[in-house]
Write a structure and sequence with these properties.
Length: 501
């Protein structure tokens, strides 16, 4: 009964935490374009994502968008994402409790993973739900491979092959999702018993080898499906030519952002508290080395997990020529450091003989704080500001008087006119309507909702956008100032003007 209760709690936790974000009415950048493209250009999303090595992503996304007509119905996709993130927590908990972690520790890690900033973004961005599907495939793949290594003969080959197929599917969904298998890999490695250093090395090499072989196979299959010239070639499919520059980028951005776990970075003024959190997590991981490793074999495991496996967990982004810093690409790396931090807590509790009930109480208290942050951040920095943009555009579309040649001009907001104080990458606190194509897609979505059966006969409209007032030499039937966004959030017009200067 306790096992079923733990699984049910982990499954429902993300839905409860993210419910305000899930049910808020808003879209997020590509959401608007994809709503239109899935109907006007069937198959286009699959073609586009295949060019990025993600055919499964496109197929899943296109199939799910077939049932979504309105922006408010994007709630369905966010609900699917929250449920899948819950499955991630359940699978990780199941693997950890079988590997020597206590029930309380396994539940804590499984729950905490579902609350990481990367998970917040995946739930908050409707069309990102296949990322969660890839995470589920990666964890299921690791479970099969690990079971296969414990068997022999044909059973072993079948289980490892099945796990490899799931890895390939995860890679063809979202490449970094496949690397999430590193999280249970580290958790199992740290607590392996009855093995030698040589057997540890074989086990680790075999796991990473199966993962990389499967990912390469998935990428090759995706590459074979690409239609030449159908879309511009994606830069992220090219290898990084400057390894040293990429290493420095890794040290400046992904590494501290991942070690910070639940603390958010800021594009303009990262708070000092962020670096205190980073230092605290590093200290916690160090306690794992001091208190949790007593033999050279255990110390070597910890060093491999802390110094080598982070490069494995972020290998796709390190190898690609792009420099993506969004939190949705950091889930494998953040999960790895979360396990190391929990190992430090576990070792410290054992060293100081902390009673299990006290340990459970501390972990429960931490989860309550993390759940509060996970509920507030995507709501305040994604759902509500994006909802403000959608409300402005929807209201403008509602008052438009159509003629045979209606001219509409949208004044796009720059980042200075955002409604949030904090902003990071293309996720937290960012804008949708600052891009010409996105502003137009938002207005088109609003007009489709106003006229679900198409525009009235003999009417049409043309959209124009700019980051400033419309040209005086032209006459427009409707001018929409989306820079009013600054009046709907926590910043003031004076702050926007000052930052613009």
């Amino acid at each position: 009964m306790r096992t079923w209760l733990c699984a049910a709690a982990l499954l429902i936790l993300p839905l409860l935490v993210y419910w305000p974000t899930v049910t808020h009415e808003y879209g997020f950048r590509d959401d608007y374009a994809n709503l239109r493209e899935v109907r006007e250009r069937p198959g286009w999303l699959v073609t586009l994502t295949t060019a990025h090595g993600r055919p499964v992503y496109g197929a899943a996304l296109e199939a799910s968008l077939q049932a979504v007509d309105r922006v408010t119905e994007l709630t369905t996709l966010r609900t699917i994402s929250a449920l899948l993130i819950g499955v991630v927590g359940v699978l990780l908990w199941w693997q950890l409790r079988r590997s020597g972690w206590t029930d309380v520790q396994a539940v804590a890690i499984g729950a905490a993973v579902t609350l990481l900033p990367g998970a917040q973004v995946v739930v908050g961005w409707a069309i990102a739900w296949p990322v969660a599907l890839g995470l589920v495939a990666a964890l299921a793949g690791f479970g099969l491979v690990e079971q296969g290594f414990a068997k022999a003969g044909l059973v072993r080959a079948a289980l490892v092959a099945a796990g490899g197929v799931l890895y390939a599917i995860a890679c063809a969904t979202y490449q970094t999702s496949a690397l999430f298998a590193v999280v249970p890999l580290v958790a199992v490695l740290l607590l392996r018993e009855g093995t030698t250093t040589r057997r540890d090395a074989w086990w680790l090499t075999a796991h990473i080898g199966v993962l990389f072989v499967a990912m390469i196979a998935g990428f090759l299959v995706a590459s074979a499906l690409i239609t030449p010239g159908a879309v511009p070639e994606a830069t992220r499919t090219h290898l990084e030519p400057d390894i040293w520059r990429k290493f420095l980028w890794f040290l400046r951005n992904p590494l501290p952002n991942s070690i910070g776990l639940f603390a958010l970075r800021d594009r303009f003024a990262t708070p000092l508290s962020f670096w205190f959190v980073v230092a605290g997590v590093v200290a916690l991981m160090a306690m794992g080395f001091l208190y949790g490793t007593r033999t050279w074999q255990q110390r070597l495991r910890w060093l491999v997990a802390a110094l080598l496996l982070p490069f494995v967990a972020h290998s796709v982004s390190l190898a690609a020529s792009s420099q993506a810093i969004g939190y949705r690409t950091l889930l494998p790396l953040s999960g790895l450091f979360l396990v190391l931090a929990m190992f430090g807590l576990r070792a410290s509790a054992a060293r100081h003989r902390v009673p299990r009930t006290v340990e459970a109480g501390v972990l429960a208290g931490l989860l309550v704080v993390l759940a509060f942050l996970a509920q507030r951040n995507p709501l305040a920095l994604i759902a509500e500001p994006q909802g403000h943009e959608w409300q402005l555009v929807q209201a403008a579309a509602g008052r438009l008087r159509l003629t045979s040649d209606t001219q509409v001009y949208l004044i796009r907001p720059t980042i200075d006119y955002r409604s949030t104080e904090r902003v990071y990458a293309d996720e937290y606190g960012t804008l949708s309507a600052d891009a010409d194509w996105a502003a137009k897609e938002m207005f088109k979505a609003a007009m489709r909702e106003r006229f679900p059966n198409g525009l009235p006969e003999n009417t049409a409209y043309t959209l124009w956008t700019g980051s400033g007032p419309p040209p005086t030499e032209y006459s427009y039937d409707l001018v929409v100032d989306l820079q009013e966004l600054i009046n709907l959030g926590e910043r003031t017009p004076a702050e926007a003007t000052a930052s613009h200067r």
